[in-house]
Amino acid sequence: MIHSKLAENKLPDFTELTLDEPEGITFKKKEEFTRTLFGRTHVVVISDTDYKQVMQKLPPVQTEENFGYLVPDWSNQTVPAMDSLEVKLGMELDRSNKDRLRNGKVDGIITSRASNYVNLKQVTSIMIFIGLFITVIFSVFTASFLYFKLFNDLQQDQRYYHSLSKMGLGEKEMKRTATIQIALLFYIPLVFAALQTLIGLSSFTSMFHFTNSMMMVSFIAIGVFIILQTIYFLVVRSRFLAQLKRVMV
Fold first, then answer.
1. Parent domain of 6
2. Helices 113-152 + 154-166 axis angle, to 10
3. pTM confidence score
4. Which of 17, 116, 162, 223 could make an S-S bridge to 247, C-beta 3.0–4.6 Å?
5. Which residues form the signal peptide (predicted)?
């Protein structure tokens, strides 16, 4: 495996790869994988013969060896359980690696998918908590702002609908017009926020294999927020219409 930091993409479709170091070695692409579980890793897989040819020309400082071990009892079909032996061993290896690095031993480390998964899950949990906390704050702020906006302009709207009622505007038409007015105020920012979130996530999740699960969680979160916003919309609408009905002729 050769890290593609040493490589230069010569063709837009990445069908041919030429190494800057060493010079004069070109490979033809047979298959390309652009995503991994934990982010992008640019790796070229070549035959043993080609590998030996490249290694003969690379300085030792630019090479490293990676060994992979497959444990039959550790299933590749599901993520490891938090109380499993795989996770316990992986976290122990992670602590051992940190101790070795603190002691200046950088000759090699041992990692497992379990420790990577646990670390990613911890970081994700913290990010989710921070995101939810910020979301709650902005949701309360938005709700307060919308409520203040509507009822701050209530007297002006009452005069407006009172004048229209004198011209023949019925209660049914008043409710429909006022509902559209409130709905635009509530849902236009929500639609733009949802679109911006999905566009940002589509760029972010392109780096990972679990794109579908992340997008599903995003859709669920947006759906929950829409439901809460709709409940608040119905409450505000009922109170707003009750105030307008008082001035109808």
1. 1-66
2. 60
3. 0.55
4. 162
5. none
